Amino acid sequence: MDNSPINLELELSGLHCAGCVAAVTKALEGLDGVEGVEVDLQQAHASIRGNQQLDPQAALSAIKAKGFGASIQQTADTPIELRSKLERRQHNAAWYWQWRAATGMPIWIALEILHWTVGGAGAAPWVTWIMFAGSTTAVILVGSGFFRSALRALRGGSTNMDTLVSIGVLTAWIYSVVLMVLTLSGIDHGQMPYFAEAVALLGIISLGHWLEARASAKAGTAVRALLELQPETAERLDSSGESIEVPIADITVGDHLVVRPGSRVAVDGRVLEGQSELDESVVTGEPIPVARGIGDQVTAGSMNTTGRLVLEATVDGTGTTVARIADLVTHAMGSKANIQRLADKVSSIFVPAVLIIALLTIVTWSLFSIFRGDVTIFQSGLIASVTVLVISCPCALGLATPMAVMVSASQAARSGILVKSAVALERAGLSNRVIFDKTGTLTLGRPVVMDVTTTADVTRDQVLQLAAAVEKPSEHPIAKAIIQAADESGLNIPDVVDFKATPGEGVSGRVDGQRVDVRRDAQASCQVLVDDQEIGTITVADKARPDAAEAVKSLHEINVATTILSGDRQATAENLAKSVGIDPGEVHAEQSPEDKQHWVEACTDQTIMVGDGINDAAALAGADVGIAMGTGTNIAIEAADVIVPGDRLTSVPLVIRIARMTRSTIRQNLFFAFLYNGTLIPIAALGLLGASGPIWAAIAMGLSDVTVIGNAIRLGLRLKRLRGS
Fold this sequence. Notes:
Elements: E1 6-13, H1 18-29, E2 34-40, E3 45-50, H2 56-65, E4 69-72, H3 79-117, H4 125-141, H5 143-155, H6 161-184, H7 195-219, H8 221-228, E5 233-237, E6 243-247, E7 256-259, E8 269-273, E9 276-279, H9 281-284, E10 290-292, E11 297-298, E12 303-304, E13 309-313, H10 321-334, H11 338-372, H12 375-391, H13 395-414, E14 418-419, H14 422-430, E15 433-436, H15 438-442, E16 443-454, H16 460-471, H17 477-488, E17 497-502, E18 506-511, E19 514-520, E20 526-530, E21 533-544, H18 548-557, E22 561-565, H19 570-580, E23 587-588, H20 593-602, E24 607-611, H21 617-622, E25 625-629, H22 634-639, E26 642-644, H23 651-685, H24 693-724
């Protein structure tokens, strides 16, 4: 039986709140073959992981049974298509609520003015008819969106936040219509209608949703800005060498592309012709251009600053680094940390609980009204019940985590840090130990010349020059290190003849008539001899990254322990640990990939594993959070939860700082949301907000949303300052 995994991507419609997300998630999780579900409210998207038992049509049917639309996403979007979808969705969401707020708010204000001028006790019948007409217009035009959402949830056997709004509005409107009929029938009831209050609920709540949609669009500008870095077209060379401009969707692997000075690289590729300096800050975050020549890899979105380049595309138009970055960021925005799952669970049971409280409120006040024989007590109870329904709308709960994650993921991406999920962000904020691989992570991952010693008769440059000459034909990493050191010293490297390489011993040859040998030595990396006489030694080692010590120091400053887990020799790993500020007692060397994984999984601390190679992949996956260097292997990057720029190890403490600030903001947001509901529901039920309770409830609910959104924006400003520090 084929047990290969299935990943199903769905585009959704009709989602409005966390209750909608919970309903879709629950419906999908109950299907055969489903192993995991992630529903993204902001992107209107669902990702399903499953096995061969997963039936795509069953998934569509389950979603549609809950009252939502769904379709299968057949192909990956190009960056241009993804940017267009983001802009369209955010524009539509903002316009949807802007239109309702622009309709509801003026009607409400007009009705309030009419009520407080000529609509008091003994008002003329025409005033009542105008109040009825204005309120009914708003209920139909503005309330229809709330009512449809509530009905969808009801047909699916659930409730959502719009259920509360719909019941509150319809209760106030129907109650007012009853009073109007009694008045027109000549019955003196002495009660005040709530036509204006019903419109106020719709207008104020729509205004809050519009502000929310605008804030969401603002928080998502980083993703759109990333996508805008990839050109919509590329200049492709045909078989005759002529160039033609084509959409990037038409680019396939192997195509030859021209990138002219001042243009951006359209897709990831390898340089075939030319040399230039490229601004690669889209990936690395570093503003200084880097030299790129024949054989070098270049990244989509990079700006070509000087020379003309011809590239061979290594990915198609939908698989570029820019698209991958945007996908990772949007995935992180839509994914939910455990703390958000708690909020969603609370929201799913919150609405039924509030309905019960509202029912108990009206029943209690009604019994008291009967006992006292005062019908006005019943009216006060009815208004208190409506106020409970309105004030309990848990919109802030649904915003608490997504807004914070969206802002932090965007800010992290601008520093070149890619966070794959909100779960990783949450766990990183709890981590108290960082475990480093050595080679390629704490070190540069390639040998460099550390020291050159000489005899009394020659200089350092002479030793290095002769060694580089005889090493020039060799492809050995040590040879490359010696040649690079000679180049950096500005030395002219002479030619070698009679070159010979002896595996395990070294190389030899004749340079300017002299026999030169470069041999491995037990006391030093290389021993240099001329005509069998030693003239010096060259020490070659894997050098620590320039910012390794700074990164370790920053981790210790935020009370995070550090460990080295390496496959290298114990003495070598301990020497490196001392040089970067890690306690040699925290070094665990000569570890196989399996040993690394077992060590990480057995660690009782909340761990972050940082690595770059194939041998680190298992440990990266086994840690609470895996961080891969951006210059690492594909398998390491796939196994990791977070990807940091390959040349900036200081991004590791930055990830923890961002995660801690984000987690703190989420807790604050949830506190505000729960405090708001927990405090005001009993106040509303007791009728302490008076006859205008529904209006105050709508205003307070909007303020709770603004509080959560404002706190997320504050997080963004703090993270921006943190990135700049």
